[in-house]
Design a protein that fits this description.
Length: 67
C-alpha cells in the first residue's frame, strides 16, 4: 500500500481487543507501544493476528502538549 505519511515504523502486534463494531490494536515499536482504534471489519479484512509484523503509519493533524 502506498501512503503519503512520513512517520512510518516497523512493529509487531502485541494485543487485539475486538468489540462488536470497534477494535483496539496494540503494536510494539522497540520498547514503546502504540495503539490504534479501528473498525472490527477492518481488523478482520486485514487479517491481523497477535505477533504479526506491521507497519505503523502515524499522521496527525494536531499534536498537543499540556502540563
Amino acid at each position: 500500500m502506498n501512503a503519503g505519511v512520513r512517520n512510518q515504523f516497523s512493529a509487531s502486534i502485541t494485543e487485539i481487543k475486538k468489540g462488536d463494531v470497534m477494535s483496539q490494536v496494540t503494536a510494539k515499536i522497540g520498547e514503546q507501544s502504540v495503539t490504534s482504534v479501528m473498525t472490527t471489519d477492518s481488523v478482520n479484512e486485514a487479517g491481523f493476528k497477535e505477533g504479526d509484523p506491521v507497519s505503523v503509519l502515524i499522521k496527525a493533524v494536531h499534536v498537543l502538549m499540556v502540563k
